[in-house]
Specification:
Length: about 300
């Protein structure tokens, strides 16, 4: 329900979080907001400050696993934040809102005749989320690309409402992570791309989708790759998990894909506890056989009553 209609940004209570993640798992958020403007964003942050509750910034929830017990604070979705404000700055530079979906980003780039973001086209996330985790991708036979390759700058708002611009050199990029996403909210991103023929861009988008469909299991809800690939290893996480016979293993309605061992699927009404148990088994088996401790790529969001998750 709407808690306070008088607020610039409506605050809702007891919102089911499974509706806002690709995993379709999780309890309810105590408070939920989906601001459309920076003014509404600021009012939501002021509400959070007044209530003294935790804050979680949510894009499309494509790599999140919420607790079955829900979230005790304010979940703030950026999916509608200034979503129509895409600007071609010229010379291959574009400015886009952080809540823009990556598929829509690619459609806009293709329309503008700009290439460089095609590696993101199949990821069901937002531009802001891709920046925070330095999203990357390579299909077989192609080059590896990451967000750090195309970012020029990002605009962030502090939890206190202060806006500032960060350039590429202000951001620390690493494999599947950056130094962003702490006490700042990304509001918009400037990318530098290259001019290209629309047909060439379209062909690259189709090739990436085709590759994804050939190697990933898209039959059921999931959060994509469960574990990061170990740095320095000749084997990927998926290859290790396949060798320790994780494919097809099931706990409740959470099941390791029979097509890709680094995917856990929600084949019914899976609980976060089911997924966490599968992840624990997988980590233990890989550690015992390969001596490598897998690092989760999925981000687990516990409730206040959850115990520490290993």
């Amino acid at each position: 329900m709407n808690l306070q209609a008088s607020l610039k940004a409506p605050i809702y209570t007891d919102v089911s979080l499974k509706l806002y993640t690709t995993f379709k798992i999780g309890g309810c958020s105590k408070y939920f907001a989906e601001p459309r403007t920076r003014s509404e964003l600021l009012s939501a942050l002021e509400f959070r400050e007044e209530r003294g509750v935790p804050l979680l910034i949510l894009g499309r929830g494509s790599n999140l696993l919420f607790s079955d017990a829900g979230y005790p604070g304010l979940v703030l979705s950026t999916r509608k934040l200034e979503i129509g404000q895409m600007t071609n700055l010229g010379r291959g530079r574009i400015r886009v809102p952080a809540g823009l979906g990556l598929i829509r980003l690619n459609l806009y780039c293709k329309d503008q005749g700009l290439s460089g973001a095609e590696f993101l086209c199949h990821i069901p996330g937002t531009v802001g989320g891709a920046v925070v985790m330095n999203a990357g991708f390579r299909r077989r036979g192609a080059l590896w690309h990451e967000m750090k390759d195309i970012i020029e700058s990002v605009t962030v708002m502090s939890f206190g409402g202060t806006l500032r611009e960060l350039t590429h050199r202000d951001i620390r990029f690493d494999y599947r992570k950056t130094n962003l996403g702490g006490e700042d909210i990304i509001t918009e991103v400037t990318l530098h791309l290259e001019s290209a023929e629309r047909q060439k861009i379209d062909d690259e988008i189709k090739a990436n989708f085709s590759y994804r469909n050939s190697v990933q299991d898209l039959r059921y809800p999931s959060a994509g790759s469960v574990f990061k690939n170990p740095v320095g290893s000749s084997l990927t996480s998926g290859q290790m998990l396949e060798r320790v016979r994780m494919k097809g293993m099931r706990v409740g309605d959470a099941m390791v894909s029979t097509k890709h061992a680094n995917f856990i699927l929600n084949v019914g009404q899976a609980k976060s506890s089911d997924v966490l148990e599968l992840m624990s088994i997988a980590k233990k088996r890989v550690l015992e056989q390969f001596g490598i401790e897998l690092e989760p790529e999925i981000r687990y969001v516990p409730s206040e009553i959850d115990e520490t998750v290993n």
